[in-house]
Design a protein that fits this description.
The chain contains twelve helices and eight strands. It has a domain of 147 residues: Rossmann fold (3-Layer(aba) Sandwich), CATH 3.40.50. Helix 2 packs antiparallel against helix 3, helix 3 crosses helix 4 and helix 6 packs parallel to helix 7. The radius of gyration is 21 Å and the shape is elongated. By secondary structure, it is of the alpha/beta class.
């Protein structure tokens, strides 16, 4: 099992395991199943999703004819894997690629871009960064610091410049250099979806001009500390763009790992990575079986 992934969900595991232990005080019956649903909900699994998981576990218990707590733990774990395995596609991209990275300010978007850059570099890919968050003054400087640390080229701009023009320049540079991956930072303005929609449409139009040279992908960065509230953010971004994947940040600092299940149940998109710390190396590839083992 990936130690990073396990550590990332350690607080969720401690919280959920403690709740499970508290309800395993008697026989396995309908009342217990109801309490297990509540345990999952308290770990930020949406109610409908928690019901599906426990119903799946209940059916597995009936088939096994084993009626003890260890068997029930295993049945819940298998039910979680069943829910996730069809949604798990991993970071399945074709290069050369441009990856548009979105997310609200404060979610850890810029740091996640740096982590992705290192992750791709470690797999032999050449990377270029595009500082297209021209709305926030410090965004370009912050990404520039990461670019210097990671020794990757960056295309920057002045504050207020049209983000799509920055991406256009980055794609031209990537084409000239033969780069494999272009990682594009974007403004995290979700409070005005009309502006976000217009900006993303322009970005996609620019990318379409390079459709013969680059495959286009988009990923949303979500703050795991927000728990189920991050699902509403993903819903908002999904309404204005096609989302290919999700990165969950700050997972090591919270016990709300159940949000992964809510995302899998509601959206047809995979979780690409889990952020497990502040360093560029602190990025774990999501895996359904490892996740189930990590939280239960």
């Amino acid at each position: 099992m990936s130690s990073k992934l396990s550590l990332g969900f350690l607080k969720t595991k401690k919280s959920l395991t403690q709740r499970f232990k508290e309800v395993f005080t008697g026989s396995i019956d309908e009342a217990l199943y109801e309490e297990l649903i509540e345990c999952l909900v308290l770990s930020d699994v949406p109610f409908e999703c928690a019901e599906k998981i426990i119903e799946g576990a209940k059916q597995k218990m009936k088939k096994s004819n084993i009626n003890d707590s260890e068997a029930l733990y295993e049945a819940v774990r298998e039910s979680i894997v069943d829910m996730l395995k069809d949604k798990q596609h991993g970071v399945n991209i074709k290069t050369p690629a441009v990856i548009i990275v979105t997310g609200v300010n404060g979610a850890g978007k810029t740091t996640s871009i740096a982590k992705l850059a290192l992750w791709f570099k470690n797999r032999g890919k050449s990377v270029i960064l595009a500082a297209a968050d021209t709305f926030r003054a410090a965004a370009s400087d912050q990404l520039g610091i990461w670019a210097k640390r990671l020794n990757v080229p960056i295309v920057k701009s002045a504050q207020g410049q049209d983000p799509s023009s920055v991406i256009f320049d980055a794609l031209k540079s990537a084409k000239a250099k033969g780069s494999d991956i272009v990682l594009c930072d974007t403004a995290g303005r979700l409070q005005n979806k009309a502006n976000l929609m217009n900006e993303l449409e322009k970005i996609y139009r620019v990318c379409s001009k390079f459709k013969d040279e680059f495959n286009v992908y988009s990923v949303v960065v979500l703050d795991a500390m927000l728990g189920s509230n991050s699902i509403s953010q993903l819903e908002a971004f999904s309404s204005v763009m096609n989302v290919d994947g999700v990165i969950l940040t700050k997972m090591d600092g919270c016990a709300k790992g159940g949000v992964v299940l809510g995302i899998a149940d509601k959206f047809d998109m995979p979780v690409w990575h889990i952020g497990t710390g502040e360093n560029a190396e602190d990025l774990a590839v999501f895996d359904a079986v490892e996740y189930a083992n990590a939280i239960i």
